[in-house]
User: What shape does this take?
Amino acid sequence: MQCVVTGGNVKVLAKAIHSLSRIGDELYVEPQQDGLALRSVNSSRSAYACFLFAPLFFSRYSLPNGHDFRCKMAIKSVQSVFRSLATLEKTVEKCHIELDEQKNRLTFTLHCKHGLLKTHNLSYQDSESLQAVFDKEGCGNVFRAQPRLLVDTVVHFPPSLEEVSVSVSDNRMWFRNHVDEEERSKAMVTELCLASDEFDHFAVHAHNSVTFCLKELRGLLVFAESTGLPISMYFDEPGSPVVLSVTDSVLEGNFVLATLSHDDHSFQKNNTKGAPTAPPPPLDDFMNDDMDPYLIAMDTSMAPGTPEASSALTVCSPPQTPAANHSTRLHCEEEEEEEEETVDSDRPPNKKFRSLFFGSVFPSQMSTQPLPDQDVLASDSEEDDS
Amino acid sequence: MKFRGKIIDIACLNHFSRVVTTIAKLTKTCVLRLTPDNLFFVLSGKVANGGVSMWCELSQGNFFDEYQMEGVSSEDNEICLELSPENLSRALKTVQNAKSVKVKLTKKHCPCVTVSAELPTLSSVSRVVTHDVPVEVIPRRLWHELKEPSVPDFHVSIYLPPLKTMKNVVDRMKNLSNFLVVEANLNGEMNLKIETDLVSVTTHFKDLGNPPWGGGSEGGADPEGMAEARVDIRRLQQFLMGQQVTPTKAMCNIVHQRILHLVVLHDDASLQYFIPAVA
Amino acid sequence: MPLSTQSQDDNDEQYILVASLDNARNLSNILKAIAFKDHAIFTATPNGLKVTVEDSKCLQANAFIQVEIFQEFTIKEDLVGFQVNLTVLLDCLNIFGGSTAPGLSTALRMCYRGYGYPLTLFLEEGGVVTVCKINTQEPEEPIDFDFCSSNVINKVILQSESLKEAFSELDMTSEVLQITMSPSQPYFRLSTFGNSGNAHYDYSKDSDMMELFKCTTTQTNRYKMLLLKPTTKALALSCKVSVRTDSRGFLSLQYMVRNDDGQICFVEYYCCPDEEVEEE
Assistant: This one.
């Protein structure tokens, strides 16, 4: 394999690798007929991302002779090739990527200003094909927005926030930080509402709410912002993945993120599935100054000691969701050996990681074998017959 | 018990946000006390037990375009809420370019101070963001702990040098020592001193001036005589770190070997900070 | 602005060394370039001040501040030596924040009375005076690396800009930095051997960043990465750097540093090679 990247595309490539590093620790490299595929998946298999750079992205693109090749390597080491991201555009004129199968290494050569030549010989491991099972075209809810809109949206959430919930109605989209049940009384809740006409495309099929990790979205935003590409978002129901993509004529990037299998109680209530005509979540309507519904009915005289203040608060928190609410598609990380899908109902419902398992809502069209682990979204099983 | 306020003026919003950020630098939690005329941020550490205390007073009319409240009762027309100033500061910071911001007491999953803002967009509909800052309502019977601290019977009162200069000096001294001695006299002189096994450093400020209310209640005190307080450097550093705007007046009162009382006055806000002296 | 408190009770007569600077940054900046250990040996002669910092008997850094840099430099003996804590000294020199704003500088007067006495600094900015007394110790004897120019085999002078990029990108998982200097390809090469592979940075001898290229014999030497890491502080401040190796493989890095007033000072690092390397 030999690829040559020149000019501004070096930075595009570097930014793509950088955003993939937000997903997982390893970069899967696969030169294909239709371009160079760079992929990554996180350790719990709840987030997967793939960039495909078409042959036209390169000033030269040639495949390894006569056989399929794929490998994986530490993403950090590839990032270090493009360490000075900010000055990359000014310093690097040309980047060669060359495969040396004899020495088991992938060589990145950067031709820089002032005749400086940087050669990075990175060792790799052979790997299976990393393929995710997702079908964004089949999603009912489809949106497209300029990166700035989403950048301006996530800025309202603290960098430490892990998960964000997105819910939609016919002409509105709400972003809300996801707060675990036990933290509800002390966590700040932020909600942002976007109108449909802020989007380039806004098609809602079901009034659903999905919760997914913010870190990966931020990773893609960095890429989308630097390349100026609009972001498309596809999702269906809670538990099935959300897909975020960027596309132009020479590249395509897809980020596939698991969503919470069943959302927290209050959200579920407001977004009943199968009731697309249900009113949107009660919004704190800004123009309506009626504050009475929000009054705090707190009888301080009744409180004989300090703890009462807090006991008064617990009244407001919703009752615990019964375990019966569990989706049958839940999958448990600790039980990586695949088990019957309903066994996890004895797990504590508040376990944080429940959010991070992919429910396989898609028939495994891409897999020809009825593997028991078809729920796992990204599969790198040694059989690459997909 | 109801509270609702609205800020339209962007300068007021920025200023309010800065005040809250200053508070957030000083303490993780504090009490927000609302009265018909004022807002107070209160931290009532027991100086005697080595805790710091803080009293910040804002006149609501200087910040809010609309301000309505109903206290616990008509006799006790006040509301006291414990909250994280950091949360409030973050909420206000993200709405700096808002067309208007409302601050309300709301009942959500728990009692909250809700900051909601209408953000400008290119579309016909505004973008609306709401931040629910959880609060704990302080019952009436605990209010007595939230009274304004009386100005201590200090030995010396002196105006502070430019806070930025003071911050630079204190930041460096912090690298060298954990404790710092502030000493001042009625002759407009103030010294910041540290001493360790490796080094002794003294910074001399002079011609600072003394506020007219003077000091030394017993009178006839030696103008050259220094009153001093040895304090935990981090406390002083925290205080200086939070001062983002040059105040109208900044001064400090020293109760010899007992308390360092720092006072910062702005046109529409004042902040008092009490740091206990250590032996 | 004169140092108002310079000698009320301290009579200059009692000092064996008095040095003044209108801008304390001219001293603090160059000391930052060698601040990788606390102990610093000060050696003052009528020619100026030399400050030495060492690590593991394998690395030595010297900063030279010539007498011309000082507005006043009075020394009553041929040689005055003492040792102070450099971190403490730097905090003292920057007590007012070390502002780079024009028209605002910290004036410095540095006095030493002799063995057993502290190093006394008078610093003044905007009418505020700080007095620092830093304890001193008897100076240790600096290591003699015996690096003399007659034994130099290879030498290049580069604009620092180009080396800064390389040093900022160095693979720190590599234990060593290997330097190859050669009259033929690859001319001047920096190599690392890290967890995930190796990297080579080749500088062409014809590059416009290369001010001087004088390599006579191909030489490849390895130096401990951890030892060389502090040199990036000097590199960051410098405008040019000279890289030399002698017949034993010892490395000399000389950095030319321009101060706020456009004057030139020098910082020099010596480093022992890590091991003999078979030439490839």
The first strand of chain B starts at residue 2 and ends at 7. The longest helix of chain B spans residues 10-26. Chain B has two domains: 2-146, 156-276. Residues 167 and 240 of chain B are 6 Å apart (CA to CA).
